[in-house]
Amino acid sequence: MNEESLFAPGHTACAGCGAAIALRLLLAAAGKNTIVTQATGCMEVVSTGYPNTAWKVPYIHVAFENAAAVASGIDAALKAKGMRAGKNIIAIGGDGGTYDIGFQALSGMLERGHDVLYVCYDNEAYMNTGIQRSSSTPYGASTTTSPPGKFSIGEDTVKKPLAEIVAAHRPSYVATASVGYYMDFQNKVKKALSKKGPSFILVYAPCPTGWRTPSEKSVEIAKLAVDTGYLILWEMENGDRNTLKVTKMPPKPRKPVIEFLKVQGRFRHLIDKPDEVKRIQEFVDAECRRYGIE
Amino acid sequence: MKMVLRGNMATAYAAKLARVEVIPAYPITPSTLFPEKISEFVANGEMNCQFVKCESEHSAISACVGASATGARVATATSSQGLALMHEILFIAAGMRLPIVMAVGNRALSAPINIWCDHQDTIAERDSGWLQFYAEKNQEALDLMLMAFRISENQNVLLPSMVGMDAFVLTHTMEVVEVPDQKDVDEFLPPYKPLYTLDVNNPMTFGAFSSPDNYMEFRYATQKAMENAPAVIDEVFAAFEKKFGRKYSRVVPYMVEDADIVFVAIGSMCGTVREAVKEMRAEGKKVGLLKITTLRPFPKDLIKKYLANAKVVAVFERNISLGFGGAVYPEISAVFVNAGQRPKIYDFIIGLGGRDILVSDIKQTYDIAMKAYADGKDDVIEWIGIKKEML
After folding, report:
1. What is the chain B residue with the closest CA to A56?
2. Three-class secondary structure of residue B344 per DSSP
3. pTM of the predicted protein model
């Protein structure tokens, strides 16, 4: 990958951090005429420890739940000053800051039609505070607030379909992506930024610490999520559901979901429970059918 | 030009005259007329401003922060629960040294829910790092709002300001207001020139993560900015008087020179207290009023100057710091606690949730305070007008 590194090395993310990979890919695709606002979370903490910064573009962090609102203000100010042209505004949040506490601000930004790309790096739990479940945490996953036990299978709800909820706002562009398929992700970033109006990309970003996976396996696991159909990569343009298409088909036949589950410590308690694995496989199959994947 | 304006309209005209570039807002009683009027100005092409129709007060103040960091002049308005919802971001706006100006319709906090006047909402934010000004009438609301931009944007200050005006008593009541000419305002208030912005040609990181190694220094620097503010406020008040002929000061004394008892009050109740003072003076009672216009930074110097010779200071509070008493009483007391000569300072909770404040209430307070003084009492926190039959 030949790129100017706008998200500089020297940040303090864990080895193999999927979110750090996502940010580097994101900025390489967006280029230097970009203003970033970021929600509180791992990526904010590891990249801005005063007096250092990993950001070679203008950057502002305000709070946990308001990245989309801050981005709205930046968009309005640039418009007011006649300086909007030629600049990207990117808001970044983790799944906690986007699915949960920042959900209202995100909806407001989308509905008002701000010319902002919101990127959610999704590692399926509150990793910064120590791996608590979020509404992105998938069924069965063990987190520090959804521990498996005599009366618990781990997380007992299914992952909230955030990108589909965003799609219901009819944004200019919405897509899901994975750090495992970086060309696909970067193409989506470029496409989103080429469109006027609000856009949203959910990028799947493994967390070796929270998922209890080897740090060198993050990209591999991010690919496995797609190849098993566990994560479906799709995009929708111009608020038109007729444009919805899957951008990366899993191989035929699809890999069984157990291959994705068994390499992660957070699912280890499920591996000897065939009924639970079957249940997850059935859920994945149903989702794939909805998107026309065999 | 003289116009008949509600308080909310006066602050909206101030925002227009200040050529505010971005106004993110969310409706709440009794401030809603402000965003309504702004949206009308924008719709008519009278104001070149981005009006961001936010989905909550939290997002409104967050958008203010984003817009201000981008270098725009920014204002908003809110009240009560809305200000409370902004609480988290108020501290961040101040910590990031962003000169946002906000009009607040001072309203009681829930529970029980109540839409009428008291000062609990802004009093609860007195530690947030925002300068606080309080208007007695609509003219003051307009003038203070205009001056707040120049004060906040001064490079020795760079802190946000809130301008309080009493719910309904000011926000909704029509008064004759002198609305300055645009040309004069432009001369008084030049465009905002930020020191740092979110600029792609000069990238900087705003809102960095701070450790125990450096957090205190940021807080110290912000306190120093607050300490710089009184001189800047005095200078801007003087420049305003020179330009527009209306005089302001951080506190306004009325008949305090020879007063045995001085009432301290904030906001629209000052008019009532002044009437009571006039009547009591006619009865031969030596009373006076000290109006507080600037509560943050707290005008310690002027409090000392005007109250040191009084026998009794009676502080009227449209707020209650539950578990203590009114919030202004301990601050005035602190000014004198180490002084040789000091008045007795008594506290009176009054007019919460829009309860009317009458001249007779002020006179009753005088009697209570003078009796407490005669009895040599120290700790007096009295509630005026409580209906004992309801308790």
Report:
1. B203
2. strand
3. 0.98
